[in-house]
Amino acid sequence: MGTTRRKATRFLKDEKNISYIYFSPDSKWMVTTNKDYTVTKVWEIPGGKQPDFLKDEKKISYIYFSPDNKWMVIRNRDATSKVWELPGGKQPDFLEEEKNISDISFSPDSKWMVTRNMDATSKLWELPGGKPHDFLKDEKNISSIVFSPDSKWMVTGDFPGGIAKVWELPDGMQHDFLKDENNISKIYFSPDSKWMVTTNKDLIVKVWELPGGKQPDFLKDEKKISYIYFSPDSKWMVTSYFGSTPKVWELPGGKQPDFLKDEKDIIISIYFSPYSNWMVTRNMDATSKVWELPDGKQRVFLKDEKNIFFIYFSPDTKWMVTRNSDATSKVWELPGGKQPGFLKDEKNISSIYFSLDSNWMVTINKDYTVAKVWELPSGKQPDFLKDEKNVSSIYFSPDSKWMVTGNMDATAKVWELPGEKQPDFLKDEKKIGNIYISPDSKWMVTTNRDTTAKVWELPDGKQPDFLKDEKNSSSIYFSPDNKWIVTTNIDDTSKLWELPGGRQHDFLKDEKNINYISFSPDSKWMITKNSDYTTKLWEIPGGKQSDFLKDEKNIRFIYFSPDSKWMVTRNKNYTFKVWELPGGKQPGFLKNEKNINSIYFSPDSKWMITFSGHKVTSWDINTGIAIERLWVNKEPSVVKILSDQWLFVAAGKAVIKMDLKTQKGNFFSYGDAESLNYSFEEIQEWLKIFGDQYLRPLSDEIKKKYRIKR
Question: Which residue of 22, 233, 377, 466 pairs with 276 in a disulfide if CB–CB is 3.0 to 4.6 A?
């Protein structure tokens, strides 16, 4: 922060009467307005370069940035609003007719923008083109908008204290499962966007499963919940309370482990490791505790630590770094909590980066003047960054053999780990904005703030020039085999380039508004999806477009088998279809399957496993025959196929091993006394097949509800 302040002082030294300052989410843009709102300026951080595209704007009253920092919206005191595209300052005109905008909200992926007007109406705009969607035209008095993390769900309403409506994007389908909910005060989504939690002003909390709105009732007796935390894998939820003990809930079933039952102090924050196998709770009394999931075993190695205010985990979750309020940091080795002492003399660390293999750690201090590299587990400190000042960001290659340091002056350097060699091929590059590295770590693409892009070949830094004429690059995609690059531009066009030569294939030249690109595992197929959810399948390298998806609308997700010979599509209504490649033959064996929520392939692509509620079905892909169906007591949480033969399913306390070739297997353990949290529809299906003799243990309430005699 010290360095940033000194730099800011220089380029603002002649500015007078600044009254408001706005920063973009990535802190790379700053907007200043003077106290009478007549002078507004944009500044590029850290250098202080001042683009002039706001020079004619007067009376700006508020500024909004999108989460991806690519859009800036100004609201003027004359009730007009304008949109600017960063970094170039291009001004789309789709808001020019809009008057009296009072507030603006962006979706997490920055592809949706909602404007709310002073006449209590609202509009939804699709970016980048500014296409308006009219399904909010009859909605009045929207005061709050919440998007799901995947930006596919939007909740609008007059809350806190009012009603709420759920909309599915992009088509605006309105789900009515909140129609009877009044006085909603807060909404939470899980990271995977499959769970929504609502709290109302009476502190009644409800859980909703998306997309259907099924409402598990395991929170029905919970009162006075103050906050809700989800784990990264969305399998754990923690509820904290006003003045009472927090609770842990296992999703989807709502099983409540009791390992927090003796925690009396108020939890003020919770940190989960990337794999959700560790949880750290930080309490009001400044103490912290470590819990190992799923059993809730408490590791005591933090018992003497006070005032921890931030926690970092390595990608493999074998290392944890704690940062304290006294500016000290400590490293802990998991699971035992052994504390290497190599950070003991480090003060004022503000950022920590791990390599993907968790063998390297970089620390940066808070004034950006000191960056250090640490080798794990030894703590050995190579000194090759000792002369580097103003390092602000770190990029590691997928193989962890290359590190790129980004500086506050927008320059960058490449380092070959363990650090003996520093290629200098980026020495003349200025204003680097983003860095993309191929899966095999042999190619790197840099995009600059002037929207140009360059390709670099690692390790020597040879620079093919095939992107030299490309302007306005916004995103880069590599194929799994590292032979193809797709560039998407801010003008909504996309191009495909063949490596290493850079030959450009032009079959995407007429495609507009592509917002999603994926490749099959063998890189012979490419999927493009447009903003209207039109999905196309392209054969690489020729670009032949298979047309068997032409009548498929609203495809939401696509799965490929490991051998790339099978493709499964999921539509917005959760219907699934299987396609055989290359011809597009469509076996119909999934057409009657309802509510599939997960699909897995065996490594040899001979078997496909589907989860549908409590039902696990194994399919022979070539014949389409369901070779076995398992009904389990809890919704499955884990599935693995080993040696192309053995199916392992974890559901509640039960662990099931099945031989896919013989359809024989074993329960490793059975969830004795675990209740069955089946839906009404599932129980009706069960009764038709088995009768009621296998439905125990069931509570008296369930038996009465579903008229089960036993």
Answer: 233
